[in-house]
Amino acid sequence: MQRYTHLGVYGVIFKDNELLLIQKARGPHTGKWDLPGGTIEFGEKPYEALEREIEEETGITGIDGKIRSAISYTLIYPYTPNQLEELHHIGIIYDVKLLDDRYELRTSGQDSLGARWIAIDKLSELDVTPFVAELFWDRGESFG
User: Distance between CA 99 and CA 69 in Å, rounded?
Assistant: First the structure.
């Protein structure tokens, strides 16, 4: 079994009692709802990666982010029908404020089936990634 470590940055963005999530288009969490964000590219600063990833996945530019926490999980999943992989996923999580409310959410992208504002009281009805679950259910943190 191959083992991989993945380091990424992710944004927690609230507006009017809604959380901005993207639906994963590929990987072990295909179809699940996740925080916007992703991989830090070689030589890229984490905050620059956050700005780039949020723009790529949601269409939003003009943010202000502060580090909230760093969390991780491990997952074994079928990479191909005959090969399992073990993933250690580490996420630097930012609380993000929008600096401009003029944007149009992306409906799809390379890693996303689209971004959507989800009402906080509807989150428990969604199939979410481990980061979303840990941030908002496992630790009992409040929304907003």
Answer: 21
Compute, in degrees rounded to 10, the torsion defined by CA atoms 118, 90, 109, 120. 0
The rounded distance, in Å, linking the Cα atoms of 129 and 139 is 15
> Closest by alpha carbon to 88, among 1, 4, 9?
4
Over residues 9-43, the pLDDT tens digits come to 999 999 999 999 999 998 889 999 999 999 999 99
Task: Sort strands 83-98 and 2-15 into parallel, antiparallel or unpaired.
Answer: parallel
Amino acid at residue number 81: P
**CB of 38 closer than 8 Å to CB of 138:** no
Amino acid at 60: I
Q: Can you point out the beta strands (E) in 29-132? A: 33-34, 37-39, 63-80, 83-98, 112-119
Assign 115 to helix, strand or coil. Answer: strand
**Residue 35 contacts residue 134 (beta carbons within 8 Å):** no
| Inter-residue contact 128 to 32 (CB < 8 Å) | yes
